[in-house]
Known about the structure:
By secondary structure, this protein is an alpha/beta fold. Helix content is 20%, strand content 30%. The chain has helices spanning 47-59, 67-72, 111-122, 133-140, and strands at 4-11, 15-17, 35-36, 44-45, 60-66, 86-90, 105-108, 126-130, 146-152, 160-161, 177-181, 184-190. Strand 11 (177-181) and strand 12 form a beta hairpin. The chain starts with a strand and ends with a strand. The mean pLDDT is 95.
Amino acid sequence: MGKVVMYSSVSVDGFVADDDDQPGPLFDWLSGGDVPLDGSGALKVSQTSYDYTRPYWDRIGVTIVGRHVFDLTDGWDGEPPGGIDHVVVVTHRPRPEGWDPGAPFHFVDGVEAAVAKAQELAGDRLVEVAAGDVGGQVLAAGLVDEVRMDVVPVVFGSGKRYFGSVDARHLLEDPDAVIQGNRVLHLRYQVRR
């Protein structure tokens, strides 16, 4: 089964969005370089960030998000973001009215069921969990293997927390990657078991 990785860009004070669900400058590093990160050419990063990020993105088979993120993005119009094969949406509500049942989106109730479905779909590829409330729930359930953060030099002061509402201690190993890009610090930690 594929490794489960919790991931997002994050402010230095631990937020993935402001109080209005806006990421503000958290994704500026994705357009602050000269190396295209994807085929669209819209994302351009430093060579250092490309060398770290592109191989990771290429290994992702499935992304898990909450219904809130799904609704905010309008379900990416039925196309998984970044060339990912499938999206698993954690929700207590049914799929939206008129949603294309052939779109590679799977609506699942509960994080344990979401991780099981994502691992089934991903095979030996990575399962990425969006940081925030759902990511924090997956971490609290003991199902996250690795935490990745792209730390951006901005302080939000308040907003949506990277680890959601996690209210217990979770130990991580020492970082096994600390890579400085342009306006971003890429960090990777294994979750201590």
